[in-house]
Model the fold of this input.
Amino acid sequence: MQRSASFEVKAYPELWKVLDIDIERLDKMRMVLGEVYEKHFLSQENRPKGMAYFDWVISEIHGGRIKEILEAKREGRVVVGIFCIYIPEEIILALDGICIGLCGGSPGTIPDAEKILPRNICPMVKSAFGFKIAKVCPYFQSVDFVCGETTCDAKKKTWEILNEYISTYVMEIPQMKREHDKRLWLEEVKLFIEKMESLSKKKLTLERLLEGIKIMNAKRKALQRLNNLRSFNPALISGKDCLLIEQIAFYDDPIRFTKKVNELCDELEERVKRGEGVKDPQALRIMVSGTPMALPNWKLHNIVESLGGVVVNEESCIGTRYFKDLMPEDFSDLESALKALVDRYMKIDCSCFTPNDERVEQVLKEYRDSKAEGIIYYSLAFCHTYNIEAYKIQKACEKEGIPFLFIETDYSPEDIGQIQTRIEAFFETIRERRR
Ligand code: BJ8
Done:
């Protein structure tokens, strides 16, 4: 193994061998991750002490958590890889399963994917697919199956090819929210339950489902609590650290994760009392809205915060869209619990739906709640639905007098300079309004 940076993402060559990983390549990737992490995260001043746990998760990302997952598999638990927050985690947990987010946020595996997939599709899809075919993701190598969905064309057609590498189940997500779309989604949820029941050899009961609901509600409440604390000025925690936590939410054990997020929130509440923060009270407060940023995509946050701003909210699936809605916890029968679950998931305002007007309202609400001073709309290249929906969000922002900047980008570092220049000009506009 090569010498590592002083922040070490630990190597697990023996474990990687068992998982049929390209060891040499993953070893190089973990070195790069360690260096980038040290540079962008550990260099921040006055970070809350509670971030030490999340640093530890990153240091163990290629092994520690994998060991836990493999141990759980030995106990008969089913491990499911997902790419979308529409996949009902409550059901996976209710049947004792483990849910792992596999969206790709690294440019490193895109050339692998482009040997098979077209170049002009979403980088998130290419990155994830590349991780599988290059055998450099211990999570992809550990899951029992992956559950894809039909949210966008890039994903939907990629699943057909991904199935050649790993068992790929697909849930059909309706693209409208009429009553018969909800019925279709309920049927899809029931088919998914059958799939999980046959693999786990367990039967879904109301009691089990309530357990899953309670775990997810607690996790989502902790993330809501953290997000609410971002409305204070001076900022108690950087946007980068919050994004990192939102990304880790898709890998970590949910009960431990919830406990650690709540401990961090306790610490941040103490900071409120002391009036202590991590940024200058004059730092420009920016809300990000749009496509999800999967680990280790920290590009936009790095730029915003290196220019003296602070990101105070992510209206995104790796962000508020994941945790804004909870489930009721009182049901008398399984069928009504499943109907409520369908209603809860149908509130997710992904741009793959038409119409999707509730997202406009949600963006404005989050802007007000986070006390942001401007919105950066972030769209991954070739994500047509988010890209097109920017028009409506921009129009609503103009009507409300909210400074708005649209950025379409991918994972390559090539446009960083150009994005920096545009954000600097955007900051100037916001400063003008302050004067
Ligand atoms: S509920 S946002 S997680 S689909 S992969 S749609 S970025 S082109 S991720 Fe998503 Fe579910 Fe919707 Fe959320 Fe666009 Fe890329 Fe498609 Fe994407």
